[in-house]
């Protein structure tokens, strides 16, 4: 019996590589990955990332589709160093971009980096999201061990009261449709 049949490389890795290659993905050998990374501590393949950012990232402003400049793409790649995981969600109905991240970078530094690399019309979106203020408050209390400033508390209270008013108004308007169990 051939013991090579039961090796991890043969039963899962190679079939996965074959499937992804058949789906149109490009296989990059481990040696090429190491070369593109520069070291095992860097996980990004910077040349590929640069090309994909250039190809995929566009935004519509004033009815025209625009590409990010080469300088902004380079800045975005540099900014990734302080962030381990990130996600951006674009709400098409509201035309808003929401960003979430996990990393060692502080909120003020992230805001500074985003302000310098995002188009100016996108920056105010962050503070319009009510969750921004709650996350900021909890981050100060739990992660930094500091008491949030009065502006943060005020924003949290305004958001909470606003949501309570909206909920109460919706309930008052639709209360006859609710089934109450005693």
Strand order of the largest sheet: 1-2
Q: Strand portion, in percent? A: 5-15%
Measured on Cα atoms, how large is the radius of gyration? 24 Å
Could you state the order of secondary-structure elements as H and E? HHHEEHEEHHHH
| Helix content, binned percent | 40-55%
What is the 3D form? extended
* Average pLDDT level: 76
Termini gap: 71 Å
How many helix segments? 8
**Poorly predicted parts:** none
Condensed summary:
The protein has 182 residues and is α+β, with helices and mostly antiparallel strands.
Layout of SSEs?
Elements: H1 8-22, H2 30-37, H3 46-56, E1 58-61, E2 64-67, H4 70-79, E3 83-91, E4 96-103, H5 107-117, H6 125-128, H7 130-143, H8 150-174
Antiparallel strand pairs: 1-2, 3-4
Helix pairs in contact: 3-4, 4-5, 7-8
